[in-house]
Write a structure and sequence with these properties.
Cytochrome Bc1 Complex, Chain D, domain 2, 9 helices, 38% helix
């Protein structure tokens, strides 16, 4: 999805309108604007091109710190990759398996059924490598944060060099008004030209943020497109049934509704 005036254009204005986070000395999270994502519409689906670019951003930028433990390589077949490409992608990832006959763990090429390997073996290793802050898993991050894709997109583009009063940052923290408290341990992950898109799309910060948001939204709502298709068919059958019952009442059972029923009530005490 090439984000133009429909999504990204209001970013600067909304950021300036919601960038005040210090209120009476208490730091509050800035208002998260709502962007009209195409995949949220009833008659729209995920943008496959944007998802492919988003996976590239995750692989080249985010995967060095963040895991996706609920995403397997076979989930990528048919959308991000063909089956052959997904097998090649999985084989390039060395998966720790075992133990073998001697009780030792070993590395093997990945398969389609394997989960995308995490960058760290455990949470303690992740904290040790990131100054005590464990990077969250991204496979369900869209559903785990208030604001969903809007929060994720705004967080990625919302870093600011100006720290307002009331925000105390350590040497390993950055200011982001869309983070609760204003302090975030993750440095700005995106820079213009950080990736090279094969389709020639300009790799701006907003474009990369939109693409990876699209991919992570799909990772959380993988069945959204299928659910919309099923829902459309159900609504179609529902309206068809309503039309059929109207036709039956109007033309088939009209004599039942048109007949007049009279009752003769006997006087009280009459036998």
């Amino acid at each position: 999805m090439l984000l133009g005036t429909s999504v990204v254009a209001p970013t600067a204005a909304m950021f300036m309108a919601g960038s005040t986070v210090a209120i009476a000395g208490d730091v509050e999270q800035s208002h998260i604007p709502h962007y009209h994502w195409e995949f949220e519409k009833f008659n729209k689906c995920f943008d496959v091109s944007g998802m492919r670019r988003g996976y590239q951003v995750y692989k080249e930028v985010c995967s060095s710190c963040h895991s996706m433990k609920y995403l397997c390589y076979n989930h990528l077949v048919g959308l991000i990759f063909t089956e052959k490409q997904a097998k090649r992608e999985a084989a390039n990832a060395m998966i720790e398996d075992g133990p073998d006959d001697e009780g030792e763990m070993f590395l093997r090429p990945g398969m389609l059924t394997d989960v995308v390997p995490p960058p760290y073996k455990n949470e303690q290793a992740a904290r040790a490598a990131n100054n005590g802050a464990a990077p969250p898993d991204l496979s369900i991050i869209v559903g785990a944060r208030r604001g969903g894709p809007n929060y994720l997109f705004q967080l990625l583009i919302g870093y600011s060099d100006e720290t307002p009063p009331g925000v105390d940052l350590s040497a390993t923290q950055w200011f982001n008004p869309f983070m609760d408290g204003g302090a975030i341990a993750m440095p700005p992950p995106l820079n213009d030209g950080a990736v090279d898109y094969p389709d020639g799309t300009p790799a701006t910060v907003t474009q990369m943020a939109a693409d990876v948001t699209e991919f992570l939204a799909w990772a959380y709502w993988r069945n959204m497109d299928r659910s919309k298709q099923v829902g459309f068919v159900m609504w179609l059958w529902c309206f068809t049934g309503i039309g059929f019952f109207w036709w039956a009442r109007r033309f088939v059972f009209s004599h039942v509704y048109a007949q007049k029923l009279t009752y003769k009530v006997r006087p009280y005490g009459f036998r």
